[in-house]
Amino acid sequence: MFSLKDKAAVITGGGSGIGRAIAVKFAEAGAKVHIIELNADAAADTVHEITQAGGQAEAHSCNVSNQQQVLDVYNKIGDIDILVNNAGIAHIGEATTTSEADFDRIVSVNIKGVYNSLFAAIPLMKQKGKGVILNMASIAATVGIPDRFAYSMSKGAVYSMTLSVAKDYLADNIRCNSISPARVHTPFVDGFIAKNYAGKEEEIFDKLSKSQPIGRMGKPEEVAALALYLCSDEAGFVTGCDYLLDGGFVKLNN
Ligand SMILES: NC(=O)c1ccc[n+]([C@@H]2O[C@H](COP(=O)([O-])OP(=O)(O)OC[C@H]3O[C@@H](n4cnc5c(N)ncnc54)[C@H](O)[C@@H]3O)[C@@H](O)[C@H]2O)c1
């Protein structure tokens, strides 16, 4: 297993789904984990799971959309080796069925939230002379997915922020990559199915599962395994890359 011994890792949205699996995996690998969460109860749950297993974790209540909150929390943490920009929200809709309020909400969490964390964490990494950043993008960043206008737009922005940051901080020894999962079974997926397809939950779950040629959704732990590699020293040659983790969604759907 790759080691993150003595590294401090900040994980946004670490209270649920993929972020929680990454937090648990990183703590198992020896990192001190900082969970940045809107949902304090969920963050406390993850911290409990990690500390019960003998790991180190701390929860920080914070809305990633709020720059001052993010700056206050990250400056208080002070020492950051790894930043995982994972917090994100879903939205279903086309350009003409996406309200201005929904569009702004997606921008403020999925795009501005990532920018705020970069803005706060990169100066701390520069002081240390090194750092690793991992952004959670999506296959929706590069493939036309029906009914995901605002969400796809936001993940396209996450993908380009990844390239931009990887380029700008090469000389500072800061690596930056992204993972683009297809559907991963988390409360995020259950939530948007329940909200948008009431009464057809099973049918939609089945359809979304089969949209991966491998025949199922991914598991949060499968994303966490790749995240661990990308944030470890063994991935020291990897920067400016986006990794598909998609059960064949992009290349085998023909
Ligand atoms: N699940 C999938 O199928 C899938 C696929 C591709 C990409 N992703 C991306 O992976 C990431 C995690 O998804 P998930 O499925 O684990 O979601 P999830 O809903 O299970 O967890 C997201 C967490 O982020 C937190 N969060 C939301 N808004 C926040 C804010 N403003 N400030 C702080 N925390 C906030 C939530 O409280 C929640 O705990 C997201 O960026 C999502 O877009 C998910």
Automatic annotation (TrEMBL):
Keywords: Oxidoreductase. InterPro entries: NAD(P)-bd_dom_sf, Sc_DH/Rdtase_CS, SDR_DHRS6-like, SDR_fam. GO terms for molecular function: oxidoreductase activity. It comes from the Bacteria. Its EC number is 1.1.1.-. PROSITE patterns: ADH_SHORT. It is an enzyme of class 1 (oxidoreductase). Coiled coil: none annotated. Belongs to the short-chain dehydrogenases/reductases (SDR) family. This is SDR family NAD(P)-dependent oxidoreductase.
